[in-house]
Amino acid sequence: ARCIGKNQERTLAIIKPDAIRYLGDIISAVYENGFTIARMRMVKLSQNEVMYFYSEHKSKDFFPRLVDFMTSGSVVAIELVGPDAINRWRSIIGPTDSQKAKEQGPLLLRARFGTDGTRNALHGSDSTTSAQREISYFFGSKYGTNTACYNDTTCC
Ligand code: RTP
Ligand code: MG
User: Fold this and answer.
1) Across the chain, what does the average pLDDT equal?
2) CATH number of 8-45+73-139
3) What distance in angstroms lies between residue 124's CA and the mean position of ligand 2's atoms?
4) Closest Cα to residue 36, out of 11, 6, 14?
5) Where does ATP bind (predicted)?
6) Which pLDDT belongs to residue 4?
7) Catalytic site residues?
8) What separation in Å is there between the alpha carbon of 153 and the centre of ligand 1?
9) What is the pLDDT of residues 52-109, one digit of tens each?
10) Is 60 known as a binding-site position?
11) Does the pLDDT at position 29 exceed 60?
């Protein structure tokens, strides 16, 4: 649907290359946690695309490792909708480092499907600004006119 209801929020999740084999379990977890999937797309990103998507990290020491990892296979980008979706998705996946996630709780998705600080199975947008940018990146107008609506009070 073009519009989402009041108190609903959108975020971008990415199933990273190390977790593509767990696609089914991750989709199940998405619905078990009360999210709706608005759009979903599987794609193999180029190095340039990953460098652009993660450009906020371009000066970090882990950046080359991140680019290698994110281009090592296909990813699935998912536009999630739900109440407090941005923060809630990030709390369900857990901390960046999958080993820390395993210490925090075995049900965290990075604990279940991730390996370490880079190979961590899943992405989640960290703010409304990032969510809008990242959703546009994967589902921009060239993929159709089903444009996302972000401001619940003016949209529906
Ligand atoms: P994401 O953006 O993918 O949702 O992850 P995040 O917010 O939890 O972590 P962020 O700091 O934005 O880092 C982006 C991705 O870079 C890789 N990374 N590796 N020390 C390391 O080896 C390291 N630190 C970060 C991870 O794949 C992380 O998700
Ligand atoms: Mg991040």
Assistant:
1) 91
2) 3.30.70.141
3) 7
4) 11
5) 16, 62, 90, 96, 110, 120
6) 66
7) 123
8) 32
9) 999 999 999 999 999 999 999 999 999 999 999 999 999 999 999 999 999 999 999 9
10) no
11) yes
65 close to 97: Cβ distance less than 8 angstroms? no
Does residue 153 surpass a pLDDT of 70?
A: no
Name the residue at shortest CA distance from atom 18 of ligand 1.
Answer: 118
Which residues' Cβ are closer than 6 Å to ligand 1?
A: 57, 62, 65-66, 96, 117-118, 120, 123-124, 126
What is the number of the ligand closest to the CA of 60?
A: 1
| Residue 112 DSSP label | H
Q: Please give the pLDDT value at position 142.
A: 73
Is pLDDT at 154 greater than 50 in this prediction?
no
Query: 30, 130, 14: which is closest to 82 by C-alpha?
Result: 30
Would the annotation count 119 as a binding residue?
no
**What pLDDT, on the 0 to 100 scale, is given for residue 145?**
53
Q: How far is the CA of 117 from the centre of ligand 1 (A)?
A: 7
The atom number, within ligand 1, closest to the CA of 63 reads 16
112 is in an annotated binding site: no
Burial tier of 36 (Cβ tally within 10 Å: 0-12, 13-18, 19+): middle
User: Cα-flanking dihedrals φ and ψ of residue 5, to 5°?
Assistant: -75, 175
Which pair of tokens denotes residue 52? Answer: 């652009």
